[in-house]
Structures are given as structure tokens and as C-alpha cells.
Amino acid sequence: MITIALSKGRIFEETLPLLAAAGIVPAEHPEQSRKLIIGTNRQEVRVVIVRASDVPTYVQYGAADIGIAGKDVLLEHGGAGLYQPLDLNIAKCRMSVAVPDGFDYAGAVKSGARLRVATKYLKTASEHFAAKGVHVDLVKLYGSMELAPLVGLADAIVDLVSSGATLRANHLTEVEEIMQISSRLVVNQAALKVKRKSLQPVIDAFSSAISGECISDVLVSAMPVFASSSRKKDQ
After folding, report:
1. pTM, to two decimals
2. What is the distance between the alpha carbons of residues 218 and 223, in angstroms, rounded to a whole number?
3. Among 55, 68, 97, 178, which is most exposed with the fewest C-beta within 10 angstroms?
4. Can you count the helices (H) and strands (E) in the chain?
């Protein structure tokens, strides 16, 4: 049995074509099911639905053989016990520093001011500011990061940014990009040794899919079946 750990949302949606290219089609869409373990068109493959931040942990400890996680999540996790063979180039965004409109971030940094920064990426933020010699106190939050500067909890935030629309809507300005983010394929190191014959073809199929070398017939034939079953649930 091959177990693949995925999270709901954008990563799952952008992973579907890659799974199909690997000949794997989930039997149900997680947004339309309460199941956390979902079968696929292949009897020996199943998908488990977990929080995005938990994907590396499930793979590290062998509860899943393969997972797909953002670079941001992997950096915070540390990567222990994980083999990261591929950057899938999906769910792209950037990790940035943002401050309230009108806040002189450059001036504050230059003067050596100590800034309070809200983020859920404590490890990455700490390393970034330390490398730049910026003095910060980090505040751990799990969501609604944009609210922190608006209510005086923080001077700045470190968060993921796609279009920047949410920042603008909350009168925040992106002042510094820390890094580009995309999602990666991760594999349990022990499982790769024990199950190499079954896992390597899946890894190779993902590699071919992202390089545009092949798109499995499953993408054409099986995906409509998946979509059809989803529509039936909506009726």
C-alpha cells in the first residue's frame, strides 16, 4: 500500500493533474467528503487528508509514504527523515515582510529599532532577520496575520503573499521579500528503501509531468469520471 498525504485547498487542486499523470485519481474530492482516508483508482494507493503543516510529520514518521508540502512548511519542519526529490512548481507564492501603510520600515531597521513581528513562520523569520542584523521579537500566530499590526499587536508581519490583495485590503504594504515559495514532493527515506519498486515509478511520473514529457491517458479518461462522481454528490 502506498499512502500519499495531501492537504485541502490550492495544493490539492493543483496536484490533481500531477496525480493523474502518475496514473492516480482520487475516488472522491475532499471538499465534498468528510472522509480523511480516500481511495483511488489504484487499489494499492490511498490518499490521506491532513493539515498542510502536518504533511511533513506524517511522512517523517511513516504514516504516509509520500506527501506534497509547501517550502514554507518544510523549512519550519526542518526536513528530518524526508527525501525531497522534486520541486513541483505548484501553489507558487512568496514569503514577505509587510507593515502598515506609511510605516518607515527601512528607517526603523537603519536606526536599530527593535520590532515586534507576528508570524507563524518563527524559524524562517528568525533566521532572516538575524542574517540582516534586524532586532525583532517574534509573536507566534496561526492565522489572520494581517490583523496584528492593525490592533497594535505587532509592527510588522511575515506571511505568504500571492497577489497582495489581502494586504492592500487591510492597509498593509509589502516591504521585503524573504523567498519564493512552491510545493515540493517529499518521500519517507525509509519507505523509499523498502518500497523503492513501487515508489520510484510514482516519483518518476511526477518528474515527467512537471517537465512536460508525458501526461498519462488517465488525465484524459479518468479525470472526467472523477468530475462526474463529484457532480452526482452535488445533485
Report:
1. 0.85
2. 7
3. 178
4. 10, 11
Rounded-to-integer distance, Cα 15 and Cα 18, Å: 5
pLDDT at 21: 87
- In the chain, ranges of CATH 3.40.190.10 domains: 2-91+182-234, 93-181
Across the beta sheet with 93-100, the strand order is 136-140, 115-119, 156-161, 93-100, 172-181
Q: What letter does residue 31 receive in the DSSP assignment?
A: G
Would you tell me how many other CB atoms lie within 10 Å of the CB of residue 135?
Answer: 12
Q: Is 92 left (phi over 0), alpha (psi -120 to 50) or beta?
A: beta
48: three-class secondary structure by DSSP: strand
* CA pair distance 216, 7, nearest whole angstrom: 23
Q: Is 89 helix (H, G, I), strand (E, B) or coil?
A: coil
Residue 208 pLDDT more than 80?
A: yes
93-181 CATH pick, 3.90.180.10, 3.40.30.10, 3.60.20.10, 3.40.190.10: 3.40.190.10
- Report the alpha-carbon angle 202-33-17, nearest 5: 30
Q: What CATH number belongs to 2-91+182-234?
A: 3.40.190.10
